[in-house]
Structure formats: C-alpha cells, structure tokens
Amino acid sequence: MAYSDILYTVDGSVATVTLNRPDALNAWTRTMENEVHQAMTEATADDAVRAVVVTGAGRGFCAGADMNLLSGIQDGAKSGGNTSDSVRAFDNGIDGGLSLPADYTMRYTYFPTVPKPIIAAINGPAAGLGLIMSLYCDMRIASDAAVFTTSFSKRGLIAEHGISWILPKLVGHANALDLLLSARKFGADEAKDLGLVNKVVPADSFADEVRAYADELATMVSPRSIRVMKRQVYAALLQPLEHAVLVANSEMPASFESDDFKEGVAHFVEKRAPRFTGT
C-alpha cells in the first residue's frame, strides 16, 4: 500500500511506522489514523516481522489531533451534522491478530491485538491523541528531548479514547488525575519517574538504542512466547486473578510441546544464538 501521512519500512525483523508530517509535529489526521491501522495489519501478516517501532519524523512524536480536524468536528457539531465518525471503532482489532475482548478492537485500543511487541519511540513532543496512541503500545522509550501533555482540559475536552482507563494503570490514580486535570507539560525524566515510559535515552543515541532493543526482541526471544504472553497480559487486565492463573495453567502444556521451547533449551545448552521459528 502507498502511504502519504506515514512511512512504513521493514529492516531485518523490525518494522518501523513513522508518523510523517514533520512540519506539523506529526499532528494526527484521519489519513494517518487509517494508514497506521493498515501498517499494523501489514506487520501482523508479515512472518518476517517480529517487532514494531512507532516513532515520529523530525523533532516531534505526535502533537495530537490536527487543528483542522478539531475545527471540522466543531463545525459539524454546530451545524447539527453527524459527528459519530469522530468516535468510530474499527469494529475489529487487526486481521489475523490476537483474540482479545472487544475492548481492544476500538479506534485507538487495537494495538494489543497485534501479536508482536510494539515499541513507542517517543522522539519529541507527545500530546493528546499522540500520547494516547503511545499508551496503547506495549512499551515506551523516550528521548530526553520528549515532552508530554494530555492537553484535553486546555481545549475544553474530556479524557478521550480510554485514557481514563489506561493512564491510571500506568501512573496511578492520583498522578493520572494530575496529568488529566492540569494538562501540564512534563518532561521525559518525570515520565520515567511516573512509570509512563520504560526508559529515557539521550537524543544523540536515541535511534540506535531503540533499534538495539527492537532487535533483541526480534531475535533473542521466542515469537510464540511473546504472542501468548501479550494476549495473557492484556486479557488479565480485565480478569480476576483466578482466571489469569487458570489461563496460565492451560497454556503451559502447549508451551512444552512447542518447537520454540525445544529451541529455547537447545540454544542454552549449546551456548549459541537462538533460532526461534514462532511455532
């Protein structure tokens, strides 16, 4: 597929989705939304891809919704037009993706259905929808130049697209309310202290360190293990403990029978690099 608002590249076993409107700090558009979904579908279908990186072109990650998009929603509401598309779900997660509850099939919540690890490489400002999108990635690595804000309260908006659910799970109840109600800006080090990002990396080595981590996930661990554990973790967020334990117990026998388990033991004993197949 030809893309206009993003770049999609595959290098080795790592796919990179780059939001590509650098002159607008990669502000989010309808086209970008659909193209990111398509890129995630491509990455899911490509057996050669074992990890996905999402980042922004230029000095920004994503500055939130493009103001023309917001103005269009406002004008549609004033004229009595149908604005239901602004809260439209994709109606499914990712074709061929993980089987998860319908909670993970909506407009910005579908990243967990991608059966491969998704790393948000936050190279610069991440605001509003840009922040939300990064929260649905599996982990977040931030450049020390990154700046964050929820932004919604300063636009007269509310906690959109499930951020009221996922943000407290990452940073805690009180911290989530602080970030949502104040819409204040905060830097990468505070984001790390809050638990919003996993790691902060100097800007001059950011791309190399993100790629090294993505390569490790793509080559050194079992794709089957990643696929099953990702489904376990996201499903468990909606399950009682007993259910999560029973799911784990049911998954273990299949793990013991898998080719990746046999390879996991063999490469350790033989002291060599693994050759996992994902089966």
Quickly describe the structure.
With 279 residues, the chain is α/β, with parallel strands linked by helices.
Task: Indicate the percent of residues in helices.
Answer: 40-55%
Integer average pLDDT: 92
CA-atom Rg in angstroms: 19 Å
Largest pleated sheet? 6 strands, mixed
H-E order = EEHEHEEHEEHHEHEHHHH
CATH secondary-structure class of the largest domain: Alpha Beta
Q: Given the C-alpha coordinates, what overall shape results? A: globular
Q: Please state how the strands of the largest beta sheet are arranged side by side.
A: 1-2-3-4-6-9
Predict the CATH topology of the largest domain.
Answer: 2-enoyl-CoA Hydratase, Chain A, domain 1
CATH superfamily of the largest domain, by name, is 2-enoyl-CoA Hydratase, Chain A, domain 1
The number of helical elements comes to 10
Strand content: 5-15%
Care to count the β-strands?
9
Structural class: alpha/beta
pLDDT < 50 stretches: 81-89
Q: How many structural domains does the protein architecture include?
A: 2
Could you characterize the architecture of this molecule?
This protein is globular. The chain has ten helices and nine strands. The model is unreliable at 81-89 (pLDDT under 50). α4 crosses α5 (173-182) and α8 (223-236) packs antiparallel against α9 (241-257). It is an alpha/beta fold and 279 residues long.
